[in-house]
Fold:
Amino acid sequence: MGETGEIDIAAAQQAMKGKHYLYECNDENACLIDLDEEPPRNMREEALTVAIQVGKLFNAQFVDEVQVMRKTVVDGSNTTGFQRTSLVAMNGTIESKHGPITIPTVILEEDSGRIIKDENERTMFRLDRLGIPLLEISTGPDIHSPDECAEVAEKIGRILRSCNVKRGLGTIRQDVNVSIEGGTRVEIKGAQDLALLPKLVELEALRQENLLEIKKELEKRGVKSIMTQIQDLSSTLSRSQSNVISGALNNKGAVLGIRVQNCKGLIGKEVQPKRRLGTELSDRAKTAASVKGLFHSDELPNYGITDGEIAAITKKLECAPQDAFILVADTKEKSELALRAAIQRLNDAIKGVPKEVRRANEDGTTTFLRMMPGAARLYPETDVLPIRLTKKRIDAIALPELLDHKITRYEKLGLGKDLAELAANSEHASLFETFVKKFNKLKTAYIAEILLTTEKNIRRQFNIAITPNAEDFETLLTALSEEKISKESVLDILKEKKPVKEILGKYALLSDRELELEVKKIVDANKGMPINGRIGKAMQQLRGKASGQKIVELIKKNS
Structure:
């Protein structure tokens, strides 16, 4: 219950699970605030600065005062039972190929703990991520196709990467809201892969279309509500060879079942690839009662349940030919809770598409997480002072260079489009710019390739993972600029995985006199060989000791 006295539907649903939450923490990345043993401190200035920068980049209108709010969260991911969240700016826009996209809100909030292990009875979280500032940017209902969704998400991501934010897998996450005509807004969480966004949107639209078809069929069959009685089928199935059923009964559990009037064939109807209405019932049951799943008549006989057992179940539940049935095998308490959740989902099917929050799966389908939360879970935070946003304060915050502008500037420096994009997106971007100014004898593209591609090339060619630092790169480029080493030796130097300054002497270039003597030896030892063969031999023996051009010139001179 929030401080207003109202109970949010999603919070109530989660609380019914009765789960235990365990937390892993380490003094290096968690403190008493994270453990909810100490009041919070004020909002981090750096985080607010980034939020204001983003608001300005979206041409949004800023609030007069940033008021920290508490948002009830009872899934255990916040030790307090709520998430702190603050509205910073509203009514912004960005441009897409299809026209302007509105940005209703820019919100600054704290990240949650991350799940390490999720079991039926308990969930374990790690607190190293808890409290990290997080920006939540919403878009208006202006996106009309799956591809446009991916385009807008990528554009927002590029704007964020222009600011001083943490980068890496999972640091930018998309929640996708999808609705079709006649359907309702469904939120899909955990869509980290941009390439998956169009498929998620497409399959959610398909799901809603199929759910509306089920609604129409239920109307044709005259089903206005699912009124049914839960019955105990344990004795009926006491000799069942089904592993799930026998396992539950052997553990002093029960098999409970319900008759579903006039729904034969509908529970088995596919709503997404390899997911049926029965899957949605099972998702609700799992979420509500932490059971492993349920059985329904449209998928039987199967899973060790025989035709004879189906006949016995049908008789016990008094099913007519057009009726379906559902079974759950677990403890009696869990089974009853699971069936009640399934009944609720069946009644939602009569209405059409329920308002839900769903989790993205790797194949583009989705799984039920919880009901859509409402405003009842939001109330003011009394431990953190609000922050005034004056015009002077907003104007004083400089805008970062946009990624697109940086890419164009790098192209003008001499980088190809792909390399310019790689450089602009890289954490080495500022180092690249420093080196371009310092090592003007070297080509800009060559400096970019050393900084951005050598690690990948060495891993691919030699299966060696290297982590050179800024000093290693600077020492290497200095030696190249002063012609103390050859370009051919760069990979050999770095793949040794040692500080470059310690091994540079090993790869020093031969003097002109030393090189000529070495070339004469190779020529004299291979007199009968064609000139191209001699060049190949010299290149092989003198690799990294001289430039290829000099070696070729001396071979020709001495042949």
Summary: The radius of gyration is 32 Å. Residues 512-558 form one domain. Residues 197-220 form the longest helix (24 residues).
